[in-house]
């Protein structure tokens, strides 16, 4: 697929296991993503919860990834950037059924990037 200039593409192996968002404290830019707190807002780059195959603008920092699963379970999270494995870690799902990861600490986004996120319960 072709990714529009200035944007990156988000795809996951199971839409029910991931949400992503961008918000920079102090910025005049509104929060974007597909997280629960954005539902019902009708503007660019706000998507239904757990949706897949999304495009977002390339912002350099403050991307967050939420991985969902059974409380206290171990989940392997892999992030591929343009087909290359960039991040591979095991996380323990917290008592609320999710784990938060700072996507911006994992990799640097560039215009046209295609990212694939995979969660596997261990």
Count the DSSP helices.
1
**Which structural class is indicated by helix and strand composition?**
mainly beta
Task: Write down the overall geometry.
Answer: globular
Overall mean pLDDT stands at 94
N-to-C order of helices and strands: EEEEEEEEHE
Q: What does the largest sheet look like?
A: 5 strands, mixed
Quick one: how many beta strands?
Answer: 9
Beta content: 35-45%
What count of domains describes the coordinates?
Answer: 1
Rg, alpha carbons: 14 Å
Low-confidence stretches: none
Give the spatial strand order of the biggest sheet: 4-1-9-6-7
Helix fraction bin: under 10%
Distance between the termini: 31 Å
Write the layout of secondary structure elements.
Elements: E1 7-12, E2 18-22, E3 32-33, E4 54-57, E5 63-68, E6 74-81, E7 84-92, E8 98-102, H1 103-106, E9 114-121
Parallel strand pairs: 1-9
Antiparallel strand pairs: 1-4, 2-3, 2-5, 5-8, 6-7, 6-9
Q: Can you walk through the features of this model?
A:
- The protein is mainly beta and 122 residues long.
- The protein has one domain.
- It is built from 1 helix and 9 strands.
- The chain has one helix at residues 103-106; strands at 7-12, 18-22, 32-33, 54-57, 63-68, 74-81, 84-92, 98-102, 114-121.
- A 5-stranded mixed β-sheet has the order 4-1-9-6-7, with no helix packed on it. It has a 4-stranded antiparallel β-sheet with strand order 3-2-5-8.
Features of the shown structure:
122 residues, mainly beta, 1 helix, 9 strands
């Amino acid at each position: 697929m072709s990714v529009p200039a200035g944007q990156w593409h988000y795809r996951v192996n199971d839409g029910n296991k991931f949400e992503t968002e961008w918000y920079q404290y102090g910025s005049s830019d509104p929060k974007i993503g597909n997280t629960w707190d954005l539902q019902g807002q009708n503007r660019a780059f706000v998507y239904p919860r757990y949706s897949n195959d999304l495009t977002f603008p390339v912002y350099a920092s403050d991307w967050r990834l939420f991985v969902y699963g059974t409380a206290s379970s171990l989940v392997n999270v892999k992030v591929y950037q343009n087909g290359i494995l960039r991040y591979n870690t095991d996380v323990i799902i917290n008592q609320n059924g999710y784990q938060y990861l700072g996507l911006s600490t994992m990799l640097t986004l560039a215009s046209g990037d295609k990212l694939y996120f995979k969660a596997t319960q261990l």
